[in-house]
UniProtKB/TrEMBL annotation:
Residues 1-18 form the signal peptide. The keyword Chaperone does not apply. It comes from Lophiostoma macrostomum CBS 122681. The keyword Signal applies. Keywords: Signal. This is Lysine-specific metallo-endopeptidase domain-containing protein. It comes from the Eukaryota. Residues 115-164 are annotated as: Disordered. Residues 121-130 have a biased composition (Basic and acidic residues).
Length: 321
């Protein structure tokens, strides 16, 4: 029961400035890396641009379905734009020690086991639990954050490291989910043909770029003041992922759940390709409303290139007959 708990539909996020990103060679040496990473940034960029557009009512509706709050100028809406913009605006740096976020594709091999935990000598971070890529079963990715006080001794290996550093791992499991041609999928070449009409959103879950986006949403939500990442996987790991879970979440959980932001980015680029959630009109017959609502929940892609009315009439016939 939530009745006794004040319902907070806003989250307290740091005012995100431009954050720097160090990309380790374990990522940049992967075949196709720059394509996967630009796709990630494009998801974030297109979402923040679409949300900031006053005329993009269709995407505002997608936002509303994902976050269950009214689009516009609410704090919650601005927070979502801010997070996606922060991912889009990450600036590359080769300065590991000063970087805010460090991205690795080493399957967490940089961590070595020490008494009572694990130590990463590359970023000088310590974790108690087994690194996520090394667990059985492996995660797809993981964002590590732990506030670290700058050491007094300048010869300490931790000296000079950004005290608010975040490290992100994209696990081998993410790179091991090939599309039909044997390479990991990305939208531009692999998934646009011949037609995505009536495709499920799940089709895109295996893309490397969506996992990178999911992790970077965690990473940019780090609050130095609170020494923690604000956007997590909520309410539990089991129910955080996948469109149906995202669609079913309360406003409070949606705003705190990385996967909701990831799907916002994905929908923004699908919108560029002409696809969106099924549109439900007040005047629709209830049987049509129910059917379209079910399809929205299941994540069906709808193409409305010839306008709304005709497409809905076709659907109506399909369900009424
Ligand atoms: Zn996560």
């Amino acid at each position: 029961m939530h009745a006794l708990i004040p319902l907070l539909v806003t989250i307290s996020l740091p005012s995100v400035l431009s954050l720097s990103l160090y990309v380790d060679t374990s990522c940049s040496s992967k075949k196709g890396w720059s394509d996967y990473y630009s796709e990630t940034q494009n998801f974030a960029k297109r979402a923040s641009v679409r949300m900031s557009s006053s005329s993009d009512t269709d995407f505002k509706n997608v936002f509303k379905r994902i976050f269950k709050v009214e689009p516009g100028s609410s704090e919650a809406f601005n927070n979502v734009v801010g997070i996606l913009k922060a991912v889009a605006d990450l600036t590359a740096t080769s300065d590991l020690k000063n970087s805010d976020i460090r991205l690795f594709c080493d399957n967490d091999k940089r961590w070595t086991q020490i008494q009572g935990g694990y130590h990463d000598p590359t970023t000088e971070m310590v974790e108690r639990d087994t690194p996520s890529c090394q667990r059985q079963p492996s995660a797809l990715g993981r964002t590590y954050s732990r506030k670290s006080k700058p050491p007094q001794n300048p010869n300490d290996p931790r000296a000079g490291h950004n005290p608010n550093r975040i490290s992100v791992s994209i696990c081998d499991l993410t790179f091991a989910r090939p599309s039909k041609d044997g390479e990991p999928a990305w939208l531009k070449d692999d998934l646009v043909k011949p037609d995505l009409q009536n495709t499920f959103l799940d089709t895109f879950d295996d893309m490397i770029s969506v996992t990178i986006l999911h992790e970077l949403v965690h990473a940019v939500s780090y609050s130095p003041a609170e020494s923690k990442v604000i956007i997590l996987d909520v309410p539990t790991k089991e129910s955080a992922y996948g469109w149906e879970n995202v669609f079913a979440k309360s406003a409070e959980d949606s705003l705190k759940n990385a996967e909701n932001y990831m799907y916002t980015g994905l929908w923004a680029v699908l919108a560029d390709m002409g696809y969106t959630l099924p549109r439900i009109k007040e005047s629709d017959d209830q049987i049509v409303k129910n059917a379209l609502e079910e399809r929205a929940k299941e994540g069906w892609l709808y193409h409305y290139a010839d306008g709304t009315k005709r497409a809905l009439e076709v659907v109506a016939r399909r369900f009424i007959s």
